[in-house]
Amino acid sequence: MENMIKNETRRDFLKVSGTVAGGLALGFYLPNGPRVARAAAPTHSPNAWVKIGTDNSITIMCARSEMGQDVYTSMPILVAEELEVDMSKIKVEFAPPAEVYINALLGGQLTGGSTSVRDAWEKLRKAGASARMMIVAAAASDWNVDAGQCKAANGMVTGPGGKKATYGSLAAKAATMEVPKDVPLKPSSQFKVIGNKAQKRLDTEAKVKGTAQFGIDTRVPGMLYAAVAMPPMIGGKVASYDDSRAKNMPGVKAVVQYSRGVAVVAESYWQAKKAKDLLLIQWDAGPNGDNDQKKIWDGLKTASEQPGAVFREHGNVEQGMGGAAKTVESTYALPFLSHSPMEPQNTTADVRADKAIIITPTQFQQLVPHVVAGATGLKPEQVEVHTTFLGGGFGRRVEVDYTIDAAEISKAVGAPVKMVWSREDDMTHDSYRPASLMKLTAGLDASGKPVAMRFHSTSPSISARLFPSIVKDGIDPFAVEGIDNYPYDTPNIKLTYQMHDAGVTPGYWRAVSHNLNAVALECFIDELASAAGKDPIQYRIDMMDMGSTKHQWSGLSAGVPVGARMKRALEEVRAKSGWGKKLGAGKGMGVAVMEGYNTVIAMVAEVTVSADYDVSVDKVTAVVDAGTLVHPDQALAQMQSTINFGQSACMWGEITIKNGGVEQNNFDTYRVARMNENPRVLDIHFIKSDSTPGGLGEPGTAVIQPAIGNAIFAACGKRVRSLPFTAEHIRSA
Amino acid sequence: MNISFNVNGKQTSVDVPQDTPLLWVLRDTLGMTGTKFGCGKALCGACTVHLNGMAVRSCQTAIGSVAGQKVTTIEGLGGNHRVQKAWMKLDVPQCGYCQPGQMMSAAALLASNKNPSDSDIDAFMSGNICRCGTYPRIRAAIKDAAKMA
Q1: What is the mean pLDDT of residues A577-586?
Q2: pLDDT tens digits, residue range B104-122?
Q3: Which fold does the domain B78-147 belong to in CATH?
Q4: Do A208 and B87 touch (CB under 8 A)?
Q5: Distance CA A451, CA A14 (A)
Q6: What is the pLDDT of residue A684?
Q7: Nearest CA in chain B to A346
Q8: Which of the residues B122, B135, B142, B144 would you substitute to probe the A interface, choosing the one with the greatest number of A C-beta atoms within 10 Å?
């Protein structure tokens, strides 16, 4: 990883442990211990999740970042179910960084990996139940009766002889009661809040009235605004700068150089921005100043000739291939992608001599005190972090780079500063979904069934940059997602990964490497079905792995093959989509199936390909097995969301590099789906289940892409192996 | 220099250079942060407001051109506007960041077209990007709001 862009400040504070049973864990060592949440005055907390006001107000702490995926409602639902309070009366507060709020599936107070509900499923119901038991115990003690004679419902405890007390009146005493050790939970048959189809989001009203506070909306007394100039080349630096014109512009308070660039600080954002445009900066291009598309893809190709690290193997793939009746080989090339959330990166920092206040839209609040401490010389416990609503996240805000920048700028000017990136800053200083080159080879027997499968991917490793200690023996667990859980029953398989630094900062992007591996695999399976002359759905069903072998690396997935679930999803999507029906000229249907985050999704896309190879996605049918749906309407919203996000990626998404920098810088050059391009029909079905919940914030993103690719093949006979599915790529396929 | 205009029914005067975008006057000078910054180039629609009832991108509207005119922002939609009611009924927002712009566009659409068809909605709303993919709900909410007239 010799040319990897490193953030030494971040690296100083991350000491990462290995994996733990049950999931992939990024175990963060916090050198100065966690900060503890402090409740404001007249409330009492039976535990870290619930604050009960003497005025009967109920506040539930949300320890995950709300970026659209509904944690602001779905997490409180879990607490409220057992706490026995009315959802319409609760308040929600974003939790500060604290050990109690760590996500056990990720090992940090971090929102990502479609883990929020999965991690919280038992924990938050137990937190609600435990708080309720303490409230009941307080009432029982007041009334001198047995707790078993008391009942809690709707924020009220009732006891024998018509005794009644509100949670608020019991709160102070409840907080002093012993924390129960044995906390039984309701069976699913008694759920009232979980699974309620009529439950509304708790943040809708604020978002509809324009009062929801995003990071960019922060205003604090005495605040100045910063606009920044950052190197156009990835890994570049400021060599020298001339601020003689900028610093004399109206409203400008200071021009400061900070680690990454030059900031203009002014009384308003527009003044800062205008002055910033007048800076004359000489850049030191850094190690990758001459990087471009040719270098990147030549590099990936050369690296792909390495054998790579084996992450899953059984049987003998060489022998299997040797005995095959037919061999099919394909190479898929997927580009870098930008996150481009609608709210550009920003942070408000107030760095003083003895403390810092950081108000930021972050997915990783736990890391912020440590990197800000590193950047300012303060101690982590002197850094207070407030998480706002996030105007989209998609993995971009797992990175804390912009909080460091704002802290450095605030410290330099000695005032609270809101640093706001332009769209151009945001798109050219993203961390990008890695480009990947994937070579797939299959040996088919006489019936067309694969007897050998060889998968070899080459791509930059995100974890090698951010969490190097989880990378073992050349394998980044986040680079093999969506293929480590290869779902088909093939006697001989060998799956390998070759890490390659392409000089472009790689980042976790919604569904991460499912978007690479599962996309290539599901397109390739379609190629095999075609080579075998079989129906793509029946072909998949016939070769499902119905076993239960554990796979080693994809720690956020089910961990074992889920053949029965996948078979059922495929059968249902076949029935619901009208699979096989006669379509008009230029139209086609494509299927894909995947397990990711313990959710199984089968999807059929219906597309029209014009004579000029322009594609429109007319309809998508999805069958989803995500276990128990905590908030069904928002489970549906996440499917609508992920289909849209994946559609944008596979149809238009491509970040390209020239002279070491990103060429796309706004929505005119980085195209994303608009209203008129959204499939007119999204037909989404959830399989009824009372299993533990699967993740929903990400997996659909990866399934829609091969479904569209396969539909394009069905529509026009072109097999596109270089994404995105633009007219140019289809024509030349 | 002083520029006077009407914002959400209130006569307002600001002392900023004429070329300052209306967006930043609303957000920074007047503290009305409901209107969002998304792209700065009229490509995404997050900053959509009404200028004399017409939907405009406030990031590309110089304050000088607004003098003496009427601006309506999400704050001025009132909270009970039929578009807002439909948005709440269908729980349209996810992250919510683009939604003020979406609602301002939708309100302008419905003001000029009582019963927009799917292709009317496509044509009018395609200037507003939503990365969360709330498009199906926006479409449904516009149709719902149209019925509330």
Answers
A1: 96
A2: 999 999 999 999 999 999 9
A3: DNA polymerase; domain 1 (1.10.150)
A4: yes
A5: 44
A6: 98
A7: B37
A8: B135
Distance (Å, whole) CA A644 – CA A641: 5
pLDDT at A331: 98
From A260's Cα to the closest Cα of chain B, the distance in A is 22
Q: Which fold has domain A32-187?
A: Aldehyde Oxidoreductase; domain 4 (3.30.365)
Q: What percent of chain B has pLDDT over 90?
A: 99
Of the candidates A488, A432, A502, A433, the residue with the CA atom closest to the CA atom of residue A455: A488
Measured between CA atoms, the residue of chain A closest to residue B18 is A270
The pair of structure tokens assigned to A219 is: 């205003």
Residue A5, Cβ density class (10 Å: 0-12 exposed, 13-18 middle, ≥19 buried): middle
Whether residues A678 and B135 touch (CB distance < 8 A) is answered with yes
Instruction: Give the C-alpha separation, A44 to A171, whole Å.
Output: 6
Q: Is the ipTM of this complex over 0.95?
A: yes
Shortest CA distance from B96: residue in chain A: A207
- Among chain A residues, the shortest Cα distance to B27 is held by A217
| Angstrom distances, CA of residue A428 to CA of A235, A288, A293, A431, A505 | 12, 15, 15, 9, 11
Which positions ≥6 away from A690 have C-beta within 8 Å?
A188, A627, A628
Instruction: Name the E strands within A492-598.
Output: 492-499, 587-596
- The region that residue A637 occupies, defined by phi over 0 for left and psi between -120 and 50 for alpha, beta otherwise, is alpha
Torsion of the alpha carbons at B69, B73, B77 and B83, rounded to the nearest 10: 120
Whether residue A643 is predicted with pLDDT greater than 60 in this model: the reply is: yes
According to DSSP, the β-strands at A417-420 and A346-351 are antiparallel
Beta strand A492-499 with A450-459: parallel, antiparallel or unpaired? parallel
Q: How many helices (H) and strands (E) does chain A have?
A: 18, 27
Within 8 A of B136 by CB-CB distance, chain A residues are 640, 678, 682
Structure tokens at A283: 């850049």
Nearest CA in chain B to A420: B37
Residue ranges of chain B that CATH labels 1.10.150.120: 78-147
CB contact under 8 A, B94 and A70: yes
CA distance A319 to chain B (A): 47
Instruction: Choose, out of A64, A67, A207, A666, the residue to mutate when testing the contact with B (most B CBs < 10 Å).
Output: A207
Report the pLDDT value the prediction gives residue A553, as an integer from 0 to 100: 87
Taking Cα atoms as reference points, which of A273, A181, A172 lies closest to residue A227? Answer: A273
Tell me if B91 and A208 make a contact (CB, 8 A cut-off): no
Task: Compute the residue count for chain B.
Answer: 149
Report domain A304-338+431-731's class. Answer: alpha beta
Best of B14, B29, B32, B39 to disrupt the A interface (most A CBs within 10 Å) is: B39
CB contact under 8 A, A678 and B133: yes
In sequence order, what are the beta bridge partners of A607?
Answer: A588, A617
Q: What are the structure tokens assigned to A69, written together?
A: 């995926």
d(CA A164, CA A156): 7
Pick the CATH number of B2-76 from 3.10.20.30, 3.30.300.130, 3.40.1080.10, 3.40.980.10: 3.10.20.30
- Tokens 């302008």 sit on residue: B108
pLDDT band at A219 (very low <50, low <70, confident <90, very high): very high
pLDDT band at A551 (very low <50, low <70, confident <90, very high): confident
pTM of the shown model:
0.94
| Cβ atoms of residues A457 and A437 within 8 Å | yes
Q: How far apart are CA A638 and CA A623, in angstroms?
A: 13
Contacts of A8 (CB under 8 A, 6+ apart): none
